């Protein structure tokens, strides 16, 4: 039996609604889990909806590794308007008719933003500059430019195009897209850069994250569903690790050594990513990395 104030060791896959911050979701889960030890893997903006992976107790130590996995988004990009935030929540700063933009031009622009690219994050991101959040500097009217950084966009597909007229009378084009990308990729920045390349400006009007690594919307619950029966919807830490990482089952002797941080011969999988280790009883023991043929413990969970 757990001590009072100690929540379940596991992940909660939340289908975040629009209009609230990821921090607000974490606060709700803390209350439901009965513990302060709760965190999340990968922030979603208030406008965005979809998969937010939340960890409780020991599972919080998985989050840093889960945050590095590929993420999938469904989004709508509006061509023809630029905003200060690169999304629909910010003030429109420029408008240019986009109805003459061809599908071929869009395809060429998308191709330039696919693969290994250098991306300048949105200025209203949570990135710190000299210890201060970028968005805070924007609010104070400071002018600056964030450095570009490498990201990988493995899929950037346009599914639909809709010609429309914005509130200010500008002829705009809305594109429904799917993006698979590495950690640290800003979909708002993709919208901004696609619009800039096409010469008409662009911003994001809708964003839904459908997958973080192994965890998709099929495993996600709304906050209302979690309020109804929280403990039944927690993914136990062993199941969470087995779903997200390659699995290595060890014998009792290996399990004892790994649990005490001793380096032993690795499984020989030849992988650069963490590997989840399980003992003969199926308990999740640790995450390890193979280095020089040896298993180096990244985090021990027993």
TrEMBL record:
Active site annotation, chain numbering: 45
Domain tRNA pseudouridine synthase II TruB subfamily 2 C-terminal per the UniProt entry, residue ranges: 245-301
Keywords, comma-separated and alphabetical: Isomerase, tRNA processing
EC number(s) given by UniProt: 5.4.99.25
One Pfam family in the UniProt entry: TruB_N
GO biological process: mRNA pseudouridine synthesis; tRNA pseudouridine synthesis
GO molecular function term, any single one: RNA binding
Domain of life, per lineage: Bacteria
Swiss-Prot/TrEMBL catalytic activity: uridine(55) in tRNA = pseudouridine(55) in tRNA
Keyword 4Fe-4S: no
Domain tRNA pseudouridylate synthase B C-terminal, first and last residues per copy: 188-231
InterPro entries assigned to the protein according to its UniProt record, in alphabetical order: PsdUridine_synth_cat_dom_sf, PsdUridine_synth_N, PUA-like_sf, PUA_sf, tRNA_psdUridine_synth_fam2_C, tRNA_psdUridine_synth_TruB, TruB_C
UniProt domain Pseudouridine synthase II N-terminal: residue ranges: 30-187
Top EC class for this record: isomerase
Family of this protein: Belongs to the pseudouridine synthase TruB family. Type 1 subfamily.
Function statement: Responsible for synthesis of pseudouridine from uracil-55 in the psi GC loop of transfer RNAs.
Protein name: tRNA pseudouridine synthase B
């Amino acid at each position: 039996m757990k001590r009072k104030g100690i929540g379940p060791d596991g992940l909660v896959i939340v289908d975040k609604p629009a209009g609230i911050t990821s921090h607000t979701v974490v606060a709700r889960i803390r209350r439901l889990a009965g513990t302060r030890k709760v965190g999340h893997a990968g922030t979603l903006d208030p406008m965005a909806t979809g998969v937010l992976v939340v960890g409780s107790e020991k599972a919080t130590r998985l989050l840093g590794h889960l945050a590095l996995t590929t993420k999938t988004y469904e989004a709508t990009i509006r061509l023809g308007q630029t905003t200060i935030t690169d999304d629909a929540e910010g003030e429109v700063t420029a408008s240019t008719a986009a109805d003459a933009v061809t599908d071929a031009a869009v395809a060429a622009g998308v191709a330039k933003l696919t693969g290994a690219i250098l991306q300048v994050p949105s200025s209203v991101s949570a990135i710190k500059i000299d210890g201060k959040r970028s968005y805070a500097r924007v609010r104070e009217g400071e002018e600056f430019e964030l450095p570009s950084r490498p990201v990988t966009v493995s899929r950037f597909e346009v599914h639909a195009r809709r010609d429309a007229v914005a509130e200010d009378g500008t002829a705009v084009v809305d594109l429904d897209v799917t993006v698979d990308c590495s950690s640290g990729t800003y979909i708002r920045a993709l919208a901004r850069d696609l619009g800039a390349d096409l010469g008409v400006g662009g911003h994001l009007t809708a964003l839904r994250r459908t997958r973080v690594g192994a965890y998709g919307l099929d495993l996600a619950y709304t906050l209302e569903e979690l309020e109804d029966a929280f403990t039944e919807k927690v993914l136990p830490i062993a199941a969470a690790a087995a779903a997200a990482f390659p699995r290595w089952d060890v014998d009792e002797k290996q399990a004892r050594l790994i649990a005490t941080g001793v380096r032993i011969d690795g499984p020989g999988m030849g992988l650069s990513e963490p590997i989840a280790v399980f003992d003969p009883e199926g308990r999740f023991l640790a995450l390890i990395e193979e280095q020089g043929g040896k298993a180096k413990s990244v985090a021990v969970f027993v």
